[in-house]
């Protein structure tokens, strides 16, 4: 082993450990790893930056814009809610939901689909007295089934496609992956309406859990008419830094102020609403001129009125809020919203809201202004699980243009009239020229953090290949699976890819496994397409944890799930997908 190989392997292992421990955002960790390889001379600037001009990565950027325009058309919600039917047979409704969602996910990004349909499905379940936890994991899994059907179904497929083009190969055709993923997806749906349905828990959603326990964490106090606090600001009154309580709303003459600014001056008869540990209520009782209201029946709906609304948000993998408290991130002033409660692992965190260190997957209950949802619907910090009241595209003409443009792009790429990149570029130009989407809107939909992660991960993949590290790892795998031959190598590649996907990210897993798989194929003298299809399926088929795939993370808190629920339901599905993939790949590309 040369020094270069050893150093690259050291950097990659260190990167994986940092990703698993979530010490920073994934894109920042991968960027730092690439920077180390560049600064130490392992990679030349040209090679380090090759990921930023990779065709697959650029196609992903263009598809974000196309998907954003289609999402805002508002036509998709109607399709899914209509297809779910009456709910008299929950299992039939499950099929009626999963099939159209999988179909949509084959052509649109998974994440916005899950974000869009989570509140729709919860509302549908609530109206029919069905537990949403029976439908939200299936919603996430349905997008994963669909994402593996086409070249554009998920960014991972396009990243592998871009790598193949860089290596002088033809890349995937539009529906090539469906040879494997269609039978696997159909079996997945069958599993979910039989074994999976029995394993799915019947739990309260985070929304219901927040509501039922509101008396345990909401309290109110009144400013007395002769109070020395009158005329003082919130800050001066000492109400901003209470030990266990967090001021979320002030009610004055029937008007509600939320979130509460530190410079707001108090008046007689102001009613103050606090959230936090009621065991620390003595803090309020010790403040002269502040009367704690006991025996009140304060409920969450009481906090809302014409100007204030309760919103649920799930902290994302890319969030700048991770490992920060609300106080440290200045949440209230940054987002103009107050955190009422935090839900994690099927339970509300019983401590002062402002001092909870947030994690990816935490569900936040926010009290915010009515325009909060529209202003922050595309933030990278959290996924909003409330329906946008004023979608950007309201004109039926623009909605039709968005859908027709998507269909034309798919047809152009499917019949090889244009390469996928050019078809996506033409689609974006069409949307901009017809003013279906604005330049500002287009920029809003591009997820730059994901693009940075992909581009940097490609640079690391190049380092693995150029230094010979990939060939060395491949040689070890070939030796280990010598007795099992090619089929053993496919199983190992699938297993490693799906393991990486569950503990880091799908794109990073695919990029790391590509050079290793290419080297294995060359050493075994077989068609490398077999391994690339295996990687594409394995990198997306993430069912066993809520942290491996964004779609799973989004429904984690809102569905009231526990980590063990994903293991119980997802591991059999992971095994099913692996068996189907290995058998079909072997007989189509190897045998």
What does this protein structure show overall?
It comes from Halalkalibacter kiskunsagensis. Pfam families: CitMHS, TrkA_C. Its main location: membrane. This is SLC13 family permease. The chain crosses the membrane at residues 5-22, 28-49, 56-74, 94-118, 139-160, 172-194, 400-433, 445-464, 476-497, 503-522, 529-549, 569-589. The protein is an alpha+beta fold and 591 residues long. Among the domains are: 63-204 and 391-445, no CATH class; 208-384, Alpha-Beta Plaits. 55% of the residues lie in helices and 9% in strands. The chain is built from 26 helices and ten strands. The chain has helices at residues 3-21, 26-39, 45-48, 55-71, 75-83, 90-105, 110-127, 136-147, 155-166, 178-193, 195-199, 206-212, 214-217, 282-285, 331-335, 372-376, 396-414, 420-433, 439-445, 448-467, 469-480, 485-503, 506-524, 529-540, 550-556, 563-590, and strands at 218-223, 245-252, 255-257, 271-276, 290-293, 308-315, 337-344, 347-348, 363-369, 382-384. The strands form two sheets. The chain has a five-stranded antiparallel beta sheet with strand order 3-2-4-1-5. Strands 8-7-9-6-10 form a five-stranded antiparallel beta sheet. A hairpin with a 2-residue loop joins strand 2 and strand 3 (255-257). Helix 1 packs antiparallel against helix 2. The longest helix is centred in the C-terminal third of the chain and has 28 residues, at 563-590. The protein is globular, with a radius of gyration of 26 Å. The two termini are 34 Å apart. The mean pLDDT is 87.
């Amino acid at each position: 082993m040369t020094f270069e190989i050893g150093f690259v392997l050291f950097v990659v292992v260190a990167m994986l450990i940092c990703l698993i421990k979530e010490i920073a955002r994934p894109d920042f960790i991968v960027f730092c790893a690439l920077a180390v390889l560049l600064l130490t001379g392992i990679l030349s600037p040209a090679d380090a930056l090759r990921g930023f001009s990779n065709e697959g990565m650029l196609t992903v950027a263009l598809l974000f814009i196309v998907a954003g325009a289609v999402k805002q058309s508002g036509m998709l919600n109607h399709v899914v809610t209509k297809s779910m039917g009456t709910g008299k047979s929950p299992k039939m409704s499950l099929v009626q939901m999963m099939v159209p969602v999988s179909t949509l996910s084959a052509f649109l990004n998974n994440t916005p689909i899950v974000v869009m349909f989570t509140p729709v499905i919860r509302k549908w379940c609530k109206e029919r007295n069905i537990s949403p936890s029976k439908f939200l994991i299936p919603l996430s899994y349905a997008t994963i089934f669909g994402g593996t059907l086409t070249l554009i179904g998920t960014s991972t497929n396009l990243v592998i496609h871009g790598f193949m083009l860089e290596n002088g190969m033809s890349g995937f055709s539009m529906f090539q992956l469906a040879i494997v993923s269609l039978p696997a997806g159909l079996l997945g749906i069958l599993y979910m309406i039989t074994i999976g349905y029995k394993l799915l828990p019947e739990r309260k959603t985070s929304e219901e859990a927040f509501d039922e326990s509101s008396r345990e964490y909401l309290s109110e106090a009144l400013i007395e008419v002769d109070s020395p606090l009158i005329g003082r600001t919130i800050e001066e009154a000492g109400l901003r830094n209470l030990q266990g309580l967090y001021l979320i709303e002030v009610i004055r003459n029937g008007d509600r102020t939320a979130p509460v600014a530190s410079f707001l001056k108090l008046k007689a008869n102001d009613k103050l609403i606090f959230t936090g540990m009621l065991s620390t209520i003595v803090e309020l009782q010790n403040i002269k001129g502040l009367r704690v209201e006991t025996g009140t029946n304060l409920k969450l709906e009481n906090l809302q009125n014409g100007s204030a609304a309760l919103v649920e948000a799930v902290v994302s993998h890319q969030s700048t809020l991770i490992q920060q408290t609300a106080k440290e991130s200045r949440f209230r002033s940054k987002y103009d919203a107050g955190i009422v409660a935090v839900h994690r692992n099927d339970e509300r965190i019983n401590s002062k809201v402002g001092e909870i260190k947030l994690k990816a997957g935490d569900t936040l209950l926010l009290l915010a202004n009515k325009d909060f949802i529209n202003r922050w619907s595309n933030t990278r910090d959290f996924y909003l699980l409330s329906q946008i009241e004023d979608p950007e595209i309201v004109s039926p003409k623009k909605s039709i243009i968005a859908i027709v443009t998507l269909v034309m792009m798919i047809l152009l790429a499917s019949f090889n009239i244009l390469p996928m990149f050019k078809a996506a570029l033409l689609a974006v130009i069409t949307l901009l020229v017809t003013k279906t989407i604005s330049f500002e809107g287009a920029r809003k939909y591009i997820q730059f953090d994901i693009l940075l992660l992909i581009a940097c991960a490609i640079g690391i993949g190049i380092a693995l290949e150029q230094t010979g590290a990939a060939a060395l790892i491949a040689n070890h795998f070939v030796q280990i699976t010598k007795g099992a031959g090619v089929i053993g190598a496919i199983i190992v590649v699938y297993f490693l890819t799906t393991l990486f996907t569950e503990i880091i990210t799908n794109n990073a897993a695919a990029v790391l496994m590509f050079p290793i798989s290419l080297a294995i194929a060359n050493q075994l003298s077989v068609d490398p397409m077999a391994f690339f299809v295996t990687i594409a399926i394995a990198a997306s088929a993430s069912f066993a944890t809520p942290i491996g795939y964004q779609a799973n993370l989004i429904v984690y808190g809102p569905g009231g799930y526990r980590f063990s629920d994903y293991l119980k339901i997802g591991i059999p599905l992971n095994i099913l997908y692996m068996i189907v993939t290995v058998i079909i790949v072997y007989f189509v590309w190897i045998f």
